[in-house]
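Incident log, support desk, overnight shift.

02:14 A customer reports that sequence design results differ from what the structure should imply. Their input is reproduced verbatim below. On-call engineer (initials T.W.) acknowledged and began investigating.
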């Protein structure tokens, strides 16, 4: 469970984001609602101040890490804005008891409450942020279960196909638009990425750089190196 807590470091930073003021510049627009530049900047600043960021930055280019974390934060917030309304439309909810049970599972990996609180601090998390992140995770689990059940999937492969198709359709209907400052939205990976050489005439394709702990699959939570 410690790995689950640590892996929440980047994802948790988006939980405080809400609908921005209409005058704020948009980092992205999802379902006609803004994710503001200020929201993503604040999330990035909080993570940059954490011990986890300092640890990861020592393993490579700190500026490149910031860029990738920024894109990951925006990608994750876009996903939250796409799937939460889908769950709401189906009447799917998460109770406080369910969140508390999931939190208790995490706490069992720590010898004391103080050790748990120290781990939160090291990751730049508050308990409220972790609660919201767990709620989002449970909500997506429930949504996936409903989609798979209604699709009548007979095995895991069929279940994965049904879920992928549902998510792809939800993103299309959400009409996701991303500010070029952050890159572009890749409809295949459902991530915000930098344009490739194919997208920029005359540009040379840069070598791939992988953020330590960043998931290759958008359905997975980020996990730390080591």
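02:41 Re-run completed on a clean worker. Output:
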């Amino acid at each position: 469970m410690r790995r689950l807590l640590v892996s929440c470091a980047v994802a948790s930073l988006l939980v405080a984001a809400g609908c921005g003021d209409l005058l704020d510049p948009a980092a992205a627009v999802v379902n006609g609602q803004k994710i503001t530049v200020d929201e993503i900047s604040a999330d990035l600043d909080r993570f940059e101040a954490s011990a986890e960021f300092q640890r990861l930055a020592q393993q490579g280019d700190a500026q490149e890490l910031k860029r990738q974390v920024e894109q990951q934060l925006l990608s994750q917030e876009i996903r939250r804005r796409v799937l939460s309304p889908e769950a709401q439309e189906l009447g799917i909810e998460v109770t406080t008891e369910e969140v508390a049970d999931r939190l208790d599972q995490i706490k069992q990996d720590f010898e004391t409450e103080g050790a748990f609180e120290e781990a939160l601090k090291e990751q730049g998390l508050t308990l409220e942020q972790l609660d919201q992140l767990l709620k989002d995770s449970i909500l997506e689990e429930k949504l996936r279960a409903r989609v798979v059940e209604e699709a009548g999937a007979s095995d895991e492969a069929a279940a994965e196909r049904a879920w992928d198709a549902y998510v792809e359709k939800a993103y299309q209907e959400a009409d996701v638009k991303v500010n070029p400052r952050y890159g572009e939205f890749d409809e295949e990976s459902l991530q915000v990425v930098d344009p490739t050489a194919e997208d920029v005439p005359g540009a040379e394709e840069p070598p791939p750089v992988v953020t330590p702990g960043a998931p290759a699959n958008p359905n997975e939570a980020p996990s730390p190196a080591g």
